[in-house]
Amino acid sequence: MRIDLHVHTKYSGHSILGIHQIVKAAKKRALDCVAITDHDEIKGALELSKVFPTVIGEEVSADEGDVIGLFLKERIQPGPALEVMDRIRSQGGLVMIPHPFDTLRSEALRNEELCTKADLIEVFNSRVLRNSDNDRARAFAREHEIAICVGSDAHTATEIGRCWMDLDPFDNPTQFMKSLQSAEIYTSRSPSLVHAQTKILKVVEALK
Fold it and tell me: pTM (2 decimals)?
């Protein structure tokens, strides 16, 4: 099954994606599942799960940088990264570090010691502009023997499916982690224009 593991909805604030837009785009790109990872919110993931196979996720604004929780049941409160990780695991979820070494993203979690505590490292993010930053994430995961994943970090419909993984079917985090071992991975970068769009949406959100 093909899954894009890093997608945002309108509940992230600086995304414009509604639920039906995501379903349409996912089907168009032959995705079987998506993980919704809104910033500090799971409402969008819960809504989408009613109409399309969805991994409930959240991109939590930890004090040191972003941490994603997957297979969540409830929203995770921001705080110190280690506490966020504990809260994710207390729900039976998995800890994923998105875009860990993105040098152009202030919210990236660059602390290597904290990154070693993750279950998964995102080694290709379609919105990372510098190839060397994605390469560093892959090298770090390999060095520390941490499972790898990829994601589009989609905030618009055209970004969905820029990255996907083809996995064996899974029903829970344990099966998901096992399926990663034989995953086929497809990666491509999003056009740089999407960053300008996100900045505009952030300004609009701040003015509300």
Answer: 0.92
Per-residue pLDDT at 199 exceeds 60: no
> Residue 198: its pLDDT value, please?
56
CATH T-level topology, domain 2-207: TIM Barrel (3.20.20)
Is the pLDDT assigned to residue 196 strictly greater than 60? no
The tens digit of pLDDT for each residue in 27-40 reads: 999 999 999 999 99
Strand pairing report for 2-7 and 33-39: parallel
Give Cβ neighbours of residue 27 (< 8 Å, ≥ 6 apart).
Answer: none
C-beta atoms surrounding 102 within 10 Å: 25
Burial classification of residue 30, based on how many CB atoms lie within 10 Å of its CB (0-12 exposed, 13-18 middle, 19 or more buried): exposed
